[in-house]
Prior knowledge:
The chain is α+β, with helices and mostly antiparallel strands. Helix content is 19%, strand content 34%. It is built from four helices and 27 strands.
Amino acid sequence: MTTALNKTFFLFAVTALLGILSLVAPPASADFAMAPALSNPAPAEGKLIALTRSGDRLLITGTRGLIAYSDNGGDSWSQASVPVSGTITGIHFTPGGTGFAVGHGGVILRSVSGGESWEVVFDGSRANEQFLAWARQNHDRLAEELAELEGADDADAALVEDAEYALEEAVFALDDAQLAVETGPADPFLAILFVDDQVGVAVGAYGMAYRTTDGGDTWSLAIDGIDNLERYHFYSLALDNNGRLHASGEAGLLFYSDDAGVNWTRAYDVYDGSLFALVADKEAVYAVGLRGNVFRSTDGGVTWTNIPLTGSGSLYAGVGSPAGRLVLVGTGGRVVYSDDGGQTFEESIHPSRSALSDVLVDGDRLLLASMSGFLAEALEDYDGN
Length: 385
């Protein structure tokens, strides 16, 4: 059941789990959140959320609308022109080099300049309007189905009970949708991924899932093909080596899609806790999350196997490398790595002991986005020895 109270709890929970510390403070006004990001003289030294590359260019995101780019391997950074001031939670570039970023207030940004400047192509107000329209239609459809079941001469009690439960959830969803339209955009997008230059998916809090087929010009609600009646939060997206799209989230959500996010198949009974990140590496996909849980799938997300680790700190991100090393990072500077395709792992604590929110391998270097800024060091030495 979704309420305004546990929506507030979720925002603080995301803060604690993912290290997005900007949420600790009272929410910024809508006017401020939609104002251009303020100038930041040291963009690589703040609280960073995401890290990616486009060609030889590195890009980082963070709080207060921060997006910055570096063309010299992270030695120096330039702040991008960003039209919003909310936290930017995810960033991704299409195969053709168009940039997309997502964040608080339900914003989706696009860049055709390699990440130097960005424009809003979608926001939480439009997301709220679409969800309200869907919630009304869904409520009316389920009410009609329940009436038909109850009016049947040979009504099946179990089917009636299931229909009553579904309608009850639809009532809650409709109430939430109406409240969201009245109070304004709040729920964040947390991940975005394009399968090609035209088709992309953005996901986030409370089961948010929107899809574009025109390169990001328009976005449409895309939840009818997802078995997520409880509207659990989505945290991550990944595309495996066979072109299958994967999603993970709260309460052990694990899905895969073979039609670029129209319809999704769910893997049940894998884990009850949050899975914050998906990592596609060679022929495997890894799901990592709360309390350091790691699961590996070698059949495209159909089945998952738990990989026991010695530590227990939550893991937030991961990356594979051409050299064969798989690296996972998380809370308190935790670094977990494997050189044998995820069969066994070794663990270390990064010297900074900062929460590590994202990771890239750049040649012989390990690049990290953290709550204490951008970090780079030799891949061989990243355990601090």
